[in-house]
Amino acid sequence: MNRFEDTICAAIRSMHLLIVEYGGEERLVQPYVYGDDHVGGRLLSAYQVAGGSASGASEGWKFFRMDKVTSVAASDRRFHSPRPEFQRDDGAFARIVCQIGD
């Protein structure tokens, strides 16, 4: 189990934004799906609303590889409904630990 799993799944269930440190940048994200990809890596699928970005896109859908995440903290901010383009049971995941709507 990843050391951030409880925080991430609690935020997904309660629809709280997360503050994720990734690639040396702090990012504010709406977490959607957390689980394992098809090669055994742990991923978080989230919509980034603010913060840094290696690609220069500070907003948008992103996959965060958990082996590159250095910290995760729950924000006191919430989002009140999933984004309309959100698809449950994302095919990028071989095994889903938690996702919006569970």
> From the coordinates shown, what is the CATH architecture?
Roll
Low-confidence stretches: none
Compute the CA-based radius of gyration.
12 Å
Structural class: mainly beta
What is the tally of beta strands? 6
Number of domains: 1
Order of helices and strands, N to C?
Answer: HEEEEEE
Silhouette = globular
Oligomer: single chain
CATH class: Mainly Beta
> What is the percentage of strand-forming residues?
over 45%
Largest sheet: 6 strands, antiparallel
Task: Tell me what the structure shows.
- The chain has 102 residues and is mostly beta strands.
- It has one domain (5-99): SH3 type barrels (Roll), CATH 2.30.30.
- The protein is 10% helix and 52% strand.
- The protein contains 1 helix and 6 strands; from the N terminus they run αββββββ.
- It has one helix at residues 5-14, and strands at 16-22, 25-37, 42-51, 60-65, 69-78, 93-99.
- β3 and β4 form a beta hairpin.
Brief summary of the model shown:
The protein contains 1 helix and 6 strands. 25% of the residues are buried.
Blueprint of the fold:
Layout lengths: L4 H10 L1 E7 L2 E13 L4 E10 L8 E6 L3 E10 L14 E7 L3
Antiparallel strand pairs: 1-2, 1-5, 2-3, 2-6, 3-4
What characteristics describe this protein?
102 residues; mainly beta; SH3 type barrels; six-stranded antiparallel beta sheet
